[in-house]
Amino acid sequence: MTALAVFGRFFLTRFPLARYSIYVLLLPAAVQSTLATRDTPGGPLGPARAGHVAGLAGLLCVLLFMRVVDEIKDLDYDRVFNRDRPLVTGEVSLAAARTYLAGSAAPALVSAAAAGPGPVAAAAAIMAYSLFLLGLERLSPRFRDAMWGNIVVTVQLKTGVLLYAVLLARTAGAAAPAGPSALTVSAFLLAYVSWEVARKTVREPFARPGEKLYSTAVGATASVAVAAVLLLAACGCRVAVAASWQSWGTGWQCAFLLPPTALAWGWVRLRRGGERYAPGGPALLAYVVFLAVPVAHWAATGRPVA
User: Fold this and answer.
1) Around Cβ 281, how many Cβ atoms within 10 Å?
2) CA 218, CA 240: separation in Å to the nearest integer?
């Protein structure tokens, strides 16, 4: 198999576009729809201009860089729990993975630079922080194995991605004040962490020894409760953005009841299940709905959701 074919298989299996389109398309659209003023031109993605499109391409490359770093970082763990991963099977070598890093970093910076100095600085910071986390996990077994402590540090990567989306939104005309911008980043970050915690939660009898789960330390009930609190806090931040930025109808406010409802469905399935089950699917649905509400509002009304 040629090197290009190997990369193609890696890209399709470890970087599924259906999932990553949430970050490349839906997340930037949700951020801009939230931060846009009433006189911002265009729809959720703003005016169709080359710089903005290049910024989205840069985000795609940054996410690929992060994915490859994660594959290298988790190699020892995957040898036990995910034996079909390309680096574990030997289909992709570590040398090839490092080539993928270089091959994604260069176009990420070039594309982000086309969007402006803010996005390129954010892209560089995200990739540098990814490499920092790779070194930290190798040097500190305590950090590597402490799931709850680990997420506090690693989630800052998602903060970087969100800041990239905010800076990209500004290139397309969104110009919300600092307060709404900060609340928007907080809301989307909390919603993401809620999904991350829920998808790595299983009931104790079904957890495998040594498996990295948030439920291992606190139990499945407490783990899902944390996910629920995070999601409710995210919805609260979104309502706060609405209150501080612009008013919008009660019907659209009620739309933010849908994400907690989806997570509650996952909790019910977790409690009733007689087999191994993690509520990652309902939590992902909750996250996608959370992102989609502002975009849907913009599409339906032509006005920002907040």
Assistant:
1) 15
2) 30
